[in-house]
What we know:
Radius of gyration: 31 Å
Structural class: mainly alpha
Number of strands: 7
CATH class of the largest domain: Mainly Alpha
Number of helices: 25
Strand content: under 5%
CATH topology of the largest domain: Growth Hormone, Chain: A
Amino acid sequence: MEISSKEHTHFFSNNTIVPVDRSSFKSESSASKEKQSCCGGIKIFLGALSFVYFAKALSGSYLKSTITQIERRFDIPSSLVGVIDGSFEIGNLLIIILVSYFGAKLHRPRIIGAGCLIMSAGTFLIAMPQFFMGRYRYERFPSIINSTVSLSPCLQDKSQTPLSALEKSQAKINAGCEREAGSSMWIYVLLGNLLRGIGETPIQPLGITYIDDYAVEENAALYIGCVQTVAIIGPIFGFLLGSLCAKLYVDIGFVDLDSVTISPKDVQWVGAWWLGYLIAGVISVLAGVPFWFLPKHLPKPESRKDSSTSSEHSKFIIEENKDQRKSYWQQVKLAEMAKDYFLPSLKNLFGNPVYILYLCASIIQFNSLIGMVTYKPKYIEQQYGQTSSKTNFVIGLINIPAVAFGIFSGGLIMKKFRIGVLGAAKLSLGSSFFGYLLLLSLFAMGCENSDVAGLTVSYHGTKPMTDYEESLFSECNSGCSCSQNDWDPICGEDGVTYVSACLAGCRASNGSGKNTVFFNCSCVGTFESSQSSSAVMGPCQKGNECPKMFLYFLVVSVITSYTLSVGGTPGYILLLRCIKPHLKSFALGIYTLAIRVLAGIPAPVYFGIAIDTTCLKWGSKRCGGRGACRLYDSSALRYVYLGLTLVLGTVSIFFSVAVLWVLRKRSSPQDETLSANGERGTCGTKSRKDNFVNSDQLIQSTYWPEKETRL
């Protein structure tokens, strides 16, 4: 504002000396037209970029909401789903350096538009396996699928089964094997997510710099804040879309829904996961259309033409300096650049203890948060017996708004109390400490294992044997020809779930589909009475205390999400204030690269591997081999999932304490900001007032990796 006021003063002083003629009126009218076109162009770009941020956030959060659906549809373990989830970061890293450097020299809006097309192509590719791998087959006894043929669940003699039915069933299995054995369709999901990462790459660096180059200087932070706000809204709609699609059967439109014998509460249920990807792909295509009609350059605002603050565009893209830059880069060799700039900058950066300690704290904390967020829907489903639809609805409508409010609160606290570097470090540390302390209370808010005969309890009502596979068989079902690989649970009237009607010793059934009732089940009922009882389709519900525990979990989860998010903005400002001004871009690049490589890629994988160790009953693929997990040990899952999150969070807190200790050691006793020290690379600040002003600008534009999924 001070620069613009000087310009206006100079303008009026010139008018008092130079006589006004028609040319001045022309220049004034042209200037006003230029200003209007500038404002109109940047606002159109702002609207288009906001829509793109919404589209990419929606598709990214929708992927998180379909983790369990993809796992069941392709019969793969959680560790492999983690690899699929991490492929987005791999695709992003493949071209981020090329896009960040060369993209600024080319037509930035069109590159963003091309990125949207690639992102939509990847989203469509994820959904394609649904149309090529045939209909979804779940494990069900033949008599339930075809009510016209009456079969006994307990096949004492295979001759009891009509040959036509057996041959038909076996032919279907063989046909399925021939179709599925030749390909692993989940690879297309991985490649599609990889393409999504590639397409998303130019959106943030090129879009934000374009706004910063052509927006009025005092409006730039507001515009960027608007974009980031829309990015928070995207995941809300992503999870709500996931909730809607999870209610619909996977083959909706292709099969008669009346013939479907499982419900959304069944562990084998797969929703219409592919439908959301088609919707997200269409949204990505529409989001990219406006960028093909936007200009490469916009008129510079009058207040920034003579400004000393040079933008990225003014530094690298001005046409007048092309020849000078070209001759300069021809003279400088790559090896000399590395020796004279890159290596000294890298040494200076890694010689800054505050930066290194904060980088380590962030890497470990993001490992904790990314792993927790990726498998949070799975944890809620398995721990509290909730459906995928309800889980996604709760996360989208409750958790994500809490994250957004936490981010806003962190920036507001920084502004209201004029917090400096040392105060930002304290706020970030306090946020992490209390957040993980709240997370500790979730250990007491779990549900006990469901009573599953042969897995969590024996047929005698006691604890199972060590080898749970052998304990599936008992005296009560010894006369039945049962398979231990099947998973077709029924609920006995004794409140115990049985893996299948055959293993429950049921010898008769009545009804069809979801309404089937089994009779003469020799394993159902107390072992002492040895009386035969009945059972119904589907597993038994969890204990009466489980719904209450789920409500407690939701309350603590929302408070934890808010508390952890409050420290995001102060931590990011701490990062910016603790490096030399000319190393900011380089330092942020290293920070983002480290987060993606050391947290975004590995965290979903090893969290998935750890979760797989808690599986009690694995499904079996149609052609042999281990499929997706059907039943988890609730207690073990709780300790592994929350324990791994808490251990990583605790380690990150120790690094944050070290950051605060170094800052205190180097801070001035008169002020809670660090004195500038160029040689040592410590935090340099001018004054508390300058610190506050810069923080105020960053409140609305703060961004860090995976911010929209920090739940």
